[in-house]
Amino acid sequence: MTDTADAPDAHHAAPAPEKTAHCSGPRAASAVAAGDGLRALRRRTTAVLVASQILGGLGVATGVALAAVLAEEVSGSEGLSGLASTSAVVGTALFSLPLATLMAARGRRPGLVLAYSAAALGGAVVVGAAAAGNFPLMLAGMAAFGAGSAANLQSRYAAADLADPDRRARAISTVVWAATIGAVLGPNIAAPAGDSVAALGLGIPVTAGPFLWCSGIFLLAALTVHLLLRPDPLLAARAREAGSAGAGDGEERSLRAGFTAVASSRPARLALATIAGSHTVMVSIMVMTPVDLGHHGIGIELIGLVISGHIAGMYAFSPVMGRLSDRLGRLAVIGLAVVLLGSAAGLAGTADGDHRQSAVGLFLLGLGWSAGLVSGSALLTDSVPQAARAAAQGLSDLTMNAAAGAGGALSGLVVARAGYGWLTALSASLLLPVTLLALHTALRRPSPVRAGDGADAPRGDAQRG
């Protein structure tokens, strides 16, 4: 489909970009979105989101690297150490819907600022709880800390707000790729960050020190978004669509509208299943692979290399997945995600302590996650009306994190009772519903789901359940 909204409004003179680039509010958003400054606004928005994603990813990765270690120190129990990461995942899920509600009502900027600020507060609570030896308070802090991940996830949708339908997946993948920098740097700065805080003599444990740095990093991310993400991309996208289609501004943007939009669109249901399924399979296998390798006598250095390769697969190749999704269609890349994740489960589950085979399997697991997240996120954005997108996107993040949290919690029990091989097999079985939905969607459509299909198309199957 050809997107005609790129052209300036024939009835209005294009405003000077320098007069609107730093303004906020629907009126300024409408002015920029309707004029020649659209391309400049896209570049500016992407740059701000990439910067905030790097900062947010750095904060999340730094904290996650030491969460289990700090939890064991504070609780005095190895068995309780996993609750810290679980609390962060639960916090990410719990923040998803309130964040979506705020964004649906007021735009991306207030929501992202609130989430990063909550994560900063959570980091400070973790530090205080560690100094006081209060484990329940630490878990509460980790739940608020999870808001940083919620903000990072929502940033990918903010990148798609102003993108043309045939470039949405690439816009999403650019922001996802930016997380690579934080994911790589975070664990490496954890030790010096802890030492620097311990040197202040404040009674803060070395393993809690990095969380103080995380709070500062999240505050910087919030400040970056607050000052520079203007005009708001979601408000600008709504103004652009209203101006090009003559739509009013009174459409319902509640969470109920998001649920209804997903329930009434087959491609949207497929997108939701793809995002949640890919994330659950990835988390369930990834969290237990180091344990399985350790049981086979593999050292921490080799385990670290396996996980590093997995992280590289998750983030570094997301631009490739974005380009493929825009060029070949969303369904093609969803199919690729299923193949990659299934192959990864097979390789990892039959490695039997071979760290090289495990490394290949975990790398493919990261690639499959990237393919599923990018193509699924683009398809979801394609398949619901503009007014319901923020709510539907919040629903997708709630679903993916809740499912992955359950998968991660159950994975240890499966390995303890049945073994790692059974875990990978059960994880791979979660791909069956995605496969069936994809086949059903493909067979019911006259042509594959491509960029611009769905809610952006004037007609078609995307709006029929």
In short:
Helix content is 77%, strand content 0%. With 465 residues, the protein is mainly α.
Describe this structure in words.
By secondary structure, this protein is mainly α. The chain has helices spanning 17-20, 26-34, 38-75, 83-106, 108-132, 135-145, 147-160, 168-198, 209-228, 233-245, 255-263, 266-295, 300-315, 318-328, 330-349, 355-383, 386-417, 420-429, 431-444. It has two domains: 18-250, Growth Hormone, Chain: A, CATH 1.20.1250.20; 261-465, Up-down Bundle (Growth Hormone, Chain: A). It is built from 19 helices and no strands. It is globular and about 60 Å long.
**Terminal Cα separation, in Å?**
22 Å
In DSSP terms (H or I, runs of 4 or more residues), the helix count works out at 19
Helix content: over 70%
Total number of β-strand segments?
Answer: 0
User: What coarse outline follows from CA principal-axis ratios?
Assistant: globular
Please provide the ordered H/E string of secondary-structure elements: HHHHHHHHHHHHHHHHHHH
Report the top-level CATH class of the largest domain.
Mainly Alpha
CATH architecture of the largest domain: Up-down Bundle
- Rg, Cα atoms, Å: 22 Å
Task: Point out poorly predicted stretches.
Answer: 1-24, 28-34, 246-250, 457-465
Mean pLDDT: 84
CATH homologous superfamily assignment of the largest domain: MFS general substrate transporter like domains
Structural class: mainly alpha
Characterize the biggest β-sheet: none
> Beta fraction of the residues?
under 5%
In CATH, the topology of the largest domain is named Growth Hormone, Chain: A
- How many structural units, i.e. domains? 2
